[in-house]
Amino acid sequence: MQHLISMDDLTISQINDILDDANRFKKAKTNPALLRGKLLFTLFFENSTRTRSSFEVAAKKLGASVIHLDPSKSSTSKGESVEDTFANICAMDPDGVIIRHSSNDIPRILADMQTTPVLNAGAGNYAHPTQALLDLFTIKEHFGDTSGKRVAIVGDIANSRVANSIMALFPRFGIELTLVAPDGFMPTEDKFKKVDNLAEIIDSIDVIISLRAQLERHEKPVFDDYEEYASHYCITNEVIGNRDVVLMHPGPVMRNIDISDEMLSDKRSKVLTQVTNGVFVRMAILKLLLLDS
Ligand code: CP
After folding, report:
1. Which residues make beta-bridge pairs with 68?
2. The domain made up of 129-270 is a member of CATH 3.90.1150.30
3. Regarding the domain with residue range 7-127+275-292, which homologous superfamily does it belong to in the CATH classification?
4. Confidence class of residue 215 from pLDDT cuts 50, 70 and 90?
5. What is the rounded CA–CA span in Å between residue 2 and residue 120?
6. Ligand 1, closest atom to CA 250?
7. Ligand 1: does its nearest atom lie under 6 Å from the Cβ of 50?
8. Which of 154, 173, 214, 242 could form a disulfide with 180 if both were Cys (CB 3.0 to 4.6 A apart)?
């Protein structure tokens, strides 16, 4: 049984298959027969605009049925454990469960029960593998090849599950990462080049991935004043100038703190292309987990 909890769950060959399938799905748009008769549950213990709807659109384009169980209206609010909620969902014989949770460990714990494929749609600050895959797809689509591309991740890297999954994925595809953040947002690991000022490396990068301050995961405020933070880390036209740089963000974007209004509507911004691509990448992931494994 194949799960997708972290990037370690996929081989290079499987990731290449996902990228190729996503490309085919983007050209073909739909394939309503592929997952006909399959049943998926979505179980989101944290809010989501993009990931949940993207998975639902992806499943429906492939002919699968999707049931959304709202945890706030489920029996978890009466004290039922997540494991018991999951076991009861599995007793209805789904073909997969897509889960988002504030805990780093819950998706893996449920996967280890080995009752149905589990897809991690975001776990604490640990991993968001489908976001990293759609980001990789978007970079490959733009450049044709990822090898040797230089990507700067800018913002609250220390608390970002997206950054963790990107750091686990991109180097496997020859991408060189630089982390750009102030002290409070810089992770402790030492595998990548680190700078506190984007201007230092702006002339030597191909892609900027801006990240939101993950306020919901800060035990105490990291900065008193996000206007002051933005004056150093917001991606503006002043920062980028006329450089040929692709601008990305997983969303939700804090306008004029992460990226300026002007840069969000600039043709170098791929923020909505990422959302579009997310559907095709998740179609490919569903195909892999529900049919190919
Ligand atoms: N990128 C992302 O995870 O967005 P949502 O929180 O809206 O799903």
Report:
1. 42
2. no
3. Aspartate/ornithine carbamoyltransferase (3.40.50.1370)
4. confident
5. 12
6. 1
7. yes
8. 154
Query: What is the strand order of the sheet 193-195 is part of?
Result: 193-195, 176-180, 150-154, 207-210, 246-248
Q: Cis check for the bond before 129: say yes or no (omega within 30 of 0).
A: no
What is the tens place of the pLDDT at every residue in 124-147?
A: 999 999 999 999 999 999 999 999
Closest residue to atom 1 of ligand 1, CA basis = 250
Where do the structural domains in the chain lie, given as residue ranges?
Answer: 7-127+275-292, 129-270
Q: Which ranges of the chain would DSSP assign to H, the alpha helix? A: 12-28, 50-61, 82-90, 106-111, 129-143, 161-169, 226-233, 237-240, 261-264, 271-287
pLDDT mean across residues, the chain: 95
For a pocket test of ligand 1, which of 51, 53, 54, 98 has the largest count of ligand atoms closer than 8 A to its C-beta? 51
Render pLDDT for 146-171 as a digit per residue (tens, 0 to 9): 999 999 999 999 999 999 999 999 99
Mutate to test the pocket of ligand 1, among 42, 44, 47, 49 (most ligand atoms within 8 A of CB): 49
Common-topology check for domains 7-127+275-292 and 129-270: yes
Q: How far apart are CA 138 and CA 281, in angstroms?
A: 10
Atom from ligand 1 closest to the CA of residue 121: 3
Of the pLDDT bands very low, low, confident and very high (cuts 50, 70, 90), residue 24 is very high
Taking Cα atoms as reference points, which of 245, 258, 241, 238 lies closest to residue 208? 245
Phi/psi at 38 (nearest 5 deg)? -85, 150
For the segment 46-87, what is each residue's pLDDT rounded down to a tens digit?
999 999 999 999 999 999 999 999 988 888 888 999 999 999
Whether the pTM exceeds 0.85: the reply is yes
48 lines ligand 1 (CB under 6 A): yes
Q: For the residues 243-247, what does the mean pLDDT come to?
A: 98
